[in-house]
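seq:
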Amino acid sequence: MNLRRPAVAVLAISLAVGLGACNRVSASEAAIPVIGLAVANLQADFFNQIKQSVDAEAKRRGVKVRVADAGGDAATQINQIQDFITRQVDAIIYIPAGATAASVPVKAAHRAKIPVIAVDRNAPKAPGDTFIATDSVAAARTLGDYVVKQTGGKGDVAILQGQIGTTPQLDRQKGFEDALRTAPQVKVVAQRPADWSQDKAFAVAQDMIQANRNINVFWGQADAMALGAAQAARNANLNPFPLVVGFDGDFAGLAAVRDGKIDATMVQQTQLMGRMAVGSAIDIIDGKQVPKEQLQKAFLLTKADPKKAQEYIGNHP
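struct:
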């Protein structure tokens, strides 16, 4: 896919032969692949876990990583990826900061013949060379099945949505709605975006409760939003307390399930995805074929299994 690295390697060998032993170290260093990691927002534990996994795997496999944190801003990320292109990195691991401009960096990288490994989010009009993520449709369907079972097939559901139009928001919405279609008496009575934010979810959930105190299920499409909804329900003294479920399996979510503050979450394999991203980048640099999609299973974790929650906290998949 990317033919620049073999050329660099050949040049490095030629320099080593031509310049003598004193220059062999620098020539070897010149042949080390450099991967740019463009992260949506390192304030989020989910993305931080992927970064840590990428760093560890890159070190193990002898490649360099340059990290750019967009802080949730798509315009910033476009500039950061342009900088990667200017620096001629060999591959880019890309977690888009938003939906509207997600295709711009991919198109720019491909014009420069730099492969893109999209993680968690993919640009539909300009997908990465490979896409590594949780199978969010299947995972959200599993979570929806759990909600149907726990409610006995009857309930009023409020959904705190992630950033509208992003891959995980769309896929989680679809999978959850697929599950609810099997139980017509489980009805979505409110849904609003809270943009993956705990604080925003708290405010949105407060508004939902004020409009309808009969809500008996809150689903945050990320654990942070589930935690915000749970706090709003506690502040409103809802009795009986609603079922609260999340998605991600970040450390705050895992601790909340362990401690019974939320009822369930879907645990994503963030460490695995980070390792896969580095492996795929190296394979593409070396001219190997990789699958267009590499979707991974997520695991349902409920408050009935606090021991498993603690195990995930100690050793995240």
